Each structure stands twice: as C-alpha cells, then as structure tokens.
Amino acid sequence: MNRYHKEIRNHHTEKEHIVKLNQRKILEITGVKEVDSFDNEEFLLQTVMGYLVIRGQHLQLKNLDVTEGIVSIKGKIYELTYLDDEGQGKAKGIFSKLFR
C-alpha cells in the first residue's frame, strides 16, 4: 500500500468535528474524544481538533455517546474557546482549580 492510500484511510477513520449551536440554548458537538470536566458553568472537552472549553449558565449534559463521540449540552451558552498547544497550560490551570 502506498502513502496516498494510507493517508486516505487515516482521514476516514478520524471522527468528524462539528459544532452546532441552536438559539444559544442547545449545543451539539461531534468528534469528542473525552469529557474531562464539567459543571453548571463550564465544560472541558477533548475533541479531535484539540481541547474545547464551553462556558455558560445553567449548563447540563443532555446527551453523551462515547462510542460515537457525540455530546449535547443544554443551557445558556456564552463562550466556546479552543485551547491550542500553547493553551495546554490553561487546561492544566482549569484542572488545578477543580482539585484544590
């Protein structure tokens, strides 16, 4: 198998990452690898595109499908932020706040 076929196969096995926000009240996300932490004001998700922080008010985990990598969150969404490689320290900072 040549390199071109390997790249195509890897592309198809990686889950697609889609973020759909409806009326700032229902957030549906695909391509989620793991839910690292959550409470009623903040979620930290590991996605195929990096860490994603969701902030809002009265946030609730509406649906979680680990095998398909789908998460639905209900509440008032204020902010969606991706943490890049240099932002990994921010993700650790979030954890340190949780486990003090």
Automatic annotation (TrEMBL):
Pfam families: YabP
Organism: Cerasibacillus quisquiliarum
InterPro entries assigned to the protein according to its UniProt record, in alphabetical order: Spore_YabP, Spore_YabP/YqfC, YabP_sf
Protein's recorded name: Spore protein YabP
Chain coiled-coil ranges: none
GO BP term (any one): sporulation resulting in formation of a cellular spore
